[in-house]
Amino acid sequence: MAKPESVFIYVGTYPGETQARDDYEVIKDLHSLGAVGTYDAAVVTKDDGKVHVNKDEMATRHGAWGGAAAGAAIGILFPPSIIGTALVGAAVGGIAGHMWRGMSRADVKELGEVIDDGQAALVVVGESQLEQALDKAALKAEKHIARELDVSPKDIDQAVRTAAAQMG
Is 46 part of a structural domain of the chain? Predict the structure, then answer.
């Protein structure tokens, strides 16, 4: 069971992008119903050894994290040399620092190796109540990995606020 004030990461793999988007819609519906709080999600595909982050998903805003949390997770999980989309911004860097300290090297390796060429993944980062909602939602991922990170949602909130202040 997750601590009440923790951050959770979920990576599920799918045979294609359509299936990953379907589960993303389930998560958006859970958010609309008030079943989950702050979260960020992205649909990721991999082909020819390159990871592609769907820009529409990255631009989606769900609470204070404003698209930066999933970008930070993707930046940690996949080496920059295989990411086909630039993940930029001070918020991504600040959040990545907190997330990196909250994950073991084994977790990073395992989460990053989940997706193979020709597949899609759904990467979701959220507060601990998201974990409970996803358990009940019965997402359709072929395989998935979920980890509680040793980082507080308040630390991520602060990293986003700090980056916003520096940019504006």
Answer: yes
